[in-house]
Design a protein that fits this description.
mainly alpha, Helicase, Ruva Protein, domain 3, 6 helices, elongated
Length: about 150
Amino acid sequence: MRWLLLILALLAGPALAVQPDEVLDDPVLEDRAREISKGLRCLVCRNESIDESNASLARDLRLLVRERLVAGDSDTQVVDYVVDRYGEYVLLQPTVRGANWLLWAAGPAMLILALILAWMFLRGRDSAAGAESQGLSDEEQARLDKILKG
């Protein structure tokens, strides 16, 4: 029974974030507002959309989105307005333009670099193993025997 309540609470959590007084009368506008809200980051919760967050700033952003939609803005205009006001950080999926391309490329570049370094390490290890297999020279063996005898 506890598991069922926990699952219901987790599923109902995002649905409870949008308060009844925020919901628009027009279902088409409300659906647009919910879709836009899913792509905007809550600046308090960091990795939660404003659609899922219960923070007061998220509520303010949800209301702002709805105000802009009622005013007649398109979805793109609403998102651009919020980004102009709060910066590109407010987007859950940032664009790949400007300096952000470096962040997008850093992951694959690091993976390629790691694979190259691993290949070089393993290649060097194989050549070093060949040198060790020759064994000790007579001089080295005599020195080792002297050390071991004390």
